[in-house]
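Submission sheet (multi-component)
Chains listed below:
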Amino acid sequence: MRWNHAKIWVLILLPIALSACYQISGHRMGGEIGPTSPVRHVNPGDVALTEGYRIEAVALGLTCPTGIAFDESGEIYVTEAGYSKGEMSAAPRLVNVSGDGDLTTVASGAENGPWTGVIFHRGSFYVAEGGEVGGGRILRIERNGSITPLISDLPSRGDHHTNGPVAGPDGFIYFTVGTYTNSGIVGADNYKSGWLGKFPDQHDIPCQDVVLAGENYSTENFLAPGAGGEVQTGAFSPFGEKTRKGQVIDGRMPCSGSVLRIWPGGGKAELVAWGFRNPFGMAFSPAGRLFVTENQFEMRGSRPVFGAGDLLWEVEPGRWYGWPDFHGPNRLDFGERYTPPGKSTPRILLAEHPARVPPRPAAVLGVHASIAGFDFSRNPDFGHFGQAFVAAFGNTPDAGKVLSPVGYKIYRVNVETGVIHDFAVNKGMANGPASWLGTGGLERPVAARFDPSGTSLYVVDFGVVNYGKLGAVPRHGTGVVWRVTRKPAVKP
Amino acid sequence: MKPNYMLLALVVLLLALQTGCGAARKNEPISGPLKIESEEASVGERLYMWHCNQCHPGGEAGLAPALNDKPAPGFAIQFQVRHGIGAMPRISDDQVSGGELDAIVSYLVVLRNR
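Outcome: structure written.
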């Protein structure tokens, strides 16, 4: 009998072993690349595209570009995020890109970046200001450089920023506000990233009243170093504030993890939908449906979550989309699916959920792909009409480990079926940022947007980011704008 | 001397792990469009995108290893899905039915043969 059992095990283990293909040697992920040359090598020939398309670089030397817009004459404008950490400092800017690729500053911001995106709407630019210092803002910028805030003090001094914007068919300016935390609990990761020390009373804000389950997480008391001991922190509460079962946290506006809208002339923001973690990119489909990209849970902090792929959502007004207790329609305590190796399963934070089950997303993308800005093909001449072209910034080391770099490319997504295809990737034996591959291809795509004609897809490439003990260190002047067009048909 | 099958299996396992098959890159820009000719594989593609793609994006390695160069027969893949190996969660037939798993395996075969 022992032999029979042994044979069965051989039969089971052999194919699994042959199919495992784990790369068990120490791998270097996108986020683990070391210092690279400050001068970026750019070579469109190092980018592979779906057959029938070509790519070229149209602007070089940008510093942390994040968004792109086109005025009524088709001129190109790009936002630079601005950055003031580590060894690099730069103010956020809106720049004009000439036909020759020359950059001219239209407007500059103060140290309240990052500027995360831009649109041109009825003669003015609208920019989302992240708000790391003074809170998020939506800015209206005129061609002469004058800046008028439409709304200020949005709650985005934490992990995630104020993002967007996009103009809706109803005339409103839509934008997003990310959450303060990874999964609802202020903790060590927020202290490490810097904001908890600066703003110790800040925390996530629900858009509507929520009833807590009374789950609390223990951490070292970082705000009283040397005092010793631990503190307990509950959901939607400041660091060190314990919560109890049945406790009600009042919802208020503006709130965390939300899609909001405001009239271009200003006024109060209106809630569109909530329950997101880090909703980043926004676009309306040709049929006028609003979609957002959402960067999902990471494996960090007091309540780490494993294996949550980034989501592309269709946004329906008034709905709740699951944060902090769901990934799509799945609860985080669903078996061990979201349990980090060697750690406990995330405990459910809300006693009652605003919806029994959140909706099903339009598409599920790679874990830690960091999907960002995107747009829909709206011209049949470009092809893939109605499909989304999604920029993926790529994984970062603080989000959690991966076996192989994820992202660093442009995806094509059929939002009706959820089927995803790569559209533009770096050539080579492995996926990853160009600086890591040693090529001149894509580094960290952060936005994709069609020009007004719909015949050219522009890709904003953030540039080289190194990660060290001080965190992310972007490389000055390594940002690029790429243009993808369809090759002319070959005549028979 | 009788052969020790358990030892043999472990040796094969270790060899397979050490050689590491590498992440085969078979995405659309590099290998051309995927030709799915059966209805089952087409259904499997949609199911794969929902259940598998987040860890094995496009069949390539990501959070988890690549599947598009997986030489395992269908029954071994089904065993791995149902029982979970390492960090991979066990997926029950409440989540993915037997017929759905067959469709996913059918799609994986198309990916592998690309």
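Remark: Chain B has one domain: 24-112.
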